[in-house]
Amino acid sequence: MSDKFDVIVIGAGPGGYVAAIKAAQQGLKTACVESWTSKDGKSQVLGGTCLNVGCIPSKALLEVTHKFEEASHDYESMGILAKDVEINVAKMQERKLGIVKQLTGGIAGLFKANGVTSIHGHGKLLANHKVEVTDKDGNTKTYEGDNVIIATGSKPIEIPPAPFDGEHIVDSEGALEFEEVPKRLGVIGAGVIGLELGSVWARLGSEVTVIEAQDKFLPVVDQQIAKDAKKQFEKQGLNIVLGARMTGAEVKKNQVNVTYEDANGKQEAQFDKLIVAVGRRPFTDGAIAEDSGVKMDERGFIFVDDTCKTEAPGVWAIGDVVRGPMLAHKASEEGVMVAERIAGHKPQVNYDCIPNVIYTSPEVAWVGKTEEELKAEGEEYNVGTFPFAANGRAMAANATAGMIKIIADAKTDRILGFHAVGPQASEIVAQGVIAMEFGSSAEDLALTCFAHPTLSESVHEAALAVSGGAIHIANRRKKK
């Protein structure tokens, strides 16, 4: 194996492996370094956090538990009699691992098909574009790349009041591996990860309490959407405690004793398992030499410009280690952009059009500005909403919770924000992303023909409602 490459990527997560494949497709000699090793310690595992212990396994569990909940509670009203439905947790976990194995193995196949050299070991950026790789036995080898892309991802944040013990107090990875349904489950953090993981086990029968330090529920989400979502989650049995600061967690007699402070003073709670999901931090530990020329802030984020260039010539950084939302698809888009820029092209990521999704039930998804952001900026805007309760396809699917909300500039009618809570929101939000990417107005969507009956008709109606022209709900009276 030659030690010289056009591009060396450190990290094979959704940012890194996509960057490596795209670079190879541009005719660049490319290597990708990944340290993740299988549990038996024998082989390299590609795909990073997302495919192995994040996006994919969590969605596998969410899908199974959603179907279980439907069979247990909703089928009878639809005329389907399915008595004494049970969940086999071991089988559910086995299926999850099968999906992960298939996808991670698929990346190895894609590397081979595209001519990417896969290097197993811990990569460390040195000065002058050199990358030192340490294998599992401690042996080191140095490679040189004309360009290096850092894509080392992120790891869960551990908080002093609740240190992980791997059994009773766990991070998001541990929460995906429970072998039985905990009777009482505590979740620290009411963000995307906390709500998704809490939902998984709540559907299977856990009594779930979500403890959140913020006073607002989902503060980054449009608050009309957030309030609707919170109402649905609480109806499902999630106990969401806001404005609560964790002060301690102690394991005694096989249970976790938690203490926290809220507006009513000191509180106590007992759980069988405690998931800590307060966010993630860049995983740059031991990945960047001090003399590499790459600059980081005190939290470990690497400084980059709008095209993901670091301050060191020929060194780029993408995904969770740089500014912006920690999202797999954002990392992938940055990976494509960087690979094409190295090849001499000039693409740019449109950071205003990156969708966000919470895969609960109902799902929550959005792109662009919230109403609160626009108010704070003093922008004039119009809003159109449409509830799934008035959508025929949603009624047929027994999934009428939630709404679509479209926000458009009052002067130009250009869509500024697209928000959804409800069935298939993760898929429907793509319609908003495409519209905004093409600079669409609300009228453009209103003049578009949508198939009937579909959930997407709610997008059509929300667009019509922006100008007070919705057909299937009463419109707000226009101010005179």
TrEMBL record:
Class of the enzyme per the UniProt entry, highest EC level: oxidoreductase
PROSITE patterns: PYRIDINE_REDOX_1
Amino acids binding FAD: K59, G123, T152, G153, S154, D320, M326, L327, A328, H329
GO terms assigned for molecular function: dihydrolipoyl dehydrogenase (NADH) activity; flavin adenine dinucleotide binding
Boundaries of every Pyridine nucleotide-disulphide oxidoreductase dimerisation domain copy: 354-463
Family named by the database record: Belongs to the class-I pyridine nucleotide-disulfide oxidoreductase family.
Subunit structure: Homodimer.
Protein name: Dihydrolipoyl dehydrogenase
